[in-house]
Specification:
The protein is α/β, with parallel strands linked by helices and about 400 residues long. The chain is about 35% helix and about 15% strand. It has helices spanning about 20-30, 50-60, 75-85, 105-115, 130-140, 160-165, 185-200, 260-275, 280-285, 285-290, 295-300, 305-320, 340-345, 350-360, 385-400; strands at about 35, 100, 120-125, 140-150, 155, 170-175, 205, 230-235, 250-255, 325, 335, 335-340, 360, 365, 375-380. An eight-stranded mixed beta sheet has the order 2-9-8-7-6-3-4-5. It has a three-stranded antiparallel beta sheet with strand order 11-15-14. A two-stranded parallel sheet has the order 1-13. The longest helix has 16 residues, at about 385-400.
Length: about 400
């Protein structure tokens, strides 16, 4: 029988967060091993639950979710998003500029599909959240990675961005606060990116799903407040700050120079209509989430759970010989650097697999985030303090005797 093969469009697509290492983890679990999972920002397994008020509102109004809704989303939800944007200083976004989707991931795909022709380029940070690279590639485009500088608290390198703009470049992606590094970008960096976008007529895609998660006085600055002369498309949702990743409810908002993008917006409307509507049930919780008490703040203050777990992760990693990490100012992750020469590491994926098999500790390697060297990996610091301490103790014990076998 003739083999059935995958589409050629998938040949250059990777999403290693859920790739071969996860398959090996599943195999180990099937053999009866219990794993500590620091590989994905899934809040619920760690007891970080969706606020009761959101769940209560969804349950009370569940009957309203039985039929299809507006392709761009419920009016009440979109209006709440508009009002939330206004509190951030974004005043030119209206109801029709909001698109609600089945998580930010769906909207990233829609935004790329509606924009890119074969060979068009999108500037994406390195390291990145790999869905951006995958979505651009699947849409027929080319992801061009610009460097973020570890020595500058992982802020983007403006000179590298400018050097990589070509006549095929359509957009630049900004992930702030950043996944996987936890960086929160300085204003001058955002202004520099906006200036390049204005000069080169680029769209700025601002992935700001962690905008409400910052530590120690770090200030998240919405990209849409920087320069009204460019088109900025911002992404947010319920998954992280509201600890509701399984509800799959995210949104994107258009601001700035929308007039020049009439054709592109027509394409976004077409793609939104094609999927009929986003998850109606989850949309019922958006108004309450944005308008109610922001309980995430309690987790970020001194003594708050996320703040303490971040501090534990940074302190313990920096005490392991051969590892170092820049303190994250936002999000739920840190991105340690490993001394490859010390441990003989030529494959960071093999390092993570070896760690998984020996210590039953699941992480994601840095090249899975399109980093260009095998010298980093990501830690999710969502587990409670004792679990996190145990995980990092296992890592230290593992590295004490590790030398990668070629």
């Amino acid at each position: 029988m003739k083999p059935i093969v995958k589409s050629e469009k998938l040949n250059n697509v990777c999403y290693d967060i859920r790739g071969p290492i996860l398959q090996e983890a599943k195999r180990l679990e099937e053999e009866g091993f219990s794993l500590i999972k620091l590989n994905i920002g899934n809040t619920a397994p760690f007891g970080l639950n969706t606020p009761d008020a959101i769940i209560h509102d969804i349950i009370l109004n569940m009957k309203d979710a039985e039929g299809y809704g507006d392709a761009q989303g419920l009016f009440s939800a979109r209006n709440a998003i508009v009002l939330d944007l206004q509190t951030k200083g974004i005043m030119d976004t209206g109801i029709d500029d909001i698109y609600i989707g089945n998580g930010v991931s769906e909207l990233i795909s829609i935004s790329m599909q509606g924009l890119l022709n074969s060979g068009d380029e999108v500037l994406i940070p390195m390291p990145d959240y790999p869905l951006w690279t995958a979505a651009a590639t699947l849409a027929g485009g080319k992801a061009v990675h610009y460097r973020c500088d570890e020595e500058a608290d992982w802020n983007p390198d403006l000179a590298d961005i400018r050097a990589k703009v070509t006549d095929r470049t359509k957009a630049v992606v900004v992930i702030n606060p950043n996944n996987p590094t936890g960086a929160v970008y300085d204003r001058e960096i955002l202004e520099g990116i906006a200036a390049i976008a204005a000069e080169k007529a680029l769209i700025v895609f601002a992935d700001e799903i962690y905008g409400r998660i910052t530590y120690g006085g770090a200030q998240y600055i919405p990209m849409a407040t920087i320069n009204p002369e460019i088109l900025t498309i911002s992404f947010d949702g319920l998954s992280k700050a509201y600890r509701a990743p399984g509800l799959r409810s995210g949104w994107m908002s258009l601001s700035g120079n929308k007039k020049s993008a009439a054709s592109y917006i027509e394409g976004l409307n077409m793609l939104s209509n094609m999927r009929l509507c986003a998850n109606m049930t989850a949309q019922l919780g958006i108004q309450t989430a944005l308008g109610g008490y922001q309980s995430i703040k309690d987790l970020l203050l001194p003594g708050g759970r996320l703040k303490e777990q971040r501090d534990i992760a940074v302190e313990m990693v920096n005490h392991i010989p051969g590892l170092s990490v820049t303190t994250p100012k936002g999000a739920l992750y840190c991105f340690p650097k490993i001394d490859c020469e010390r441990f003989g590491i030529t494959s960071d994926e093999q390092f993570i697999i070896d760690l998984l098999r020996e210590k039953h500790l699941l992480l994601v390697h840095g090249t899975g985030f399109n980093w260009d060297k095998p010298d980093h990996f990501r830690i999710v610091f969502l587990p409670d303090r004792e679990t996190l301490k145990e995980a990092l103790k296992r890592m230290g014990d593992f590295l004490a005797g590790y030398k990668q076998q070629i």
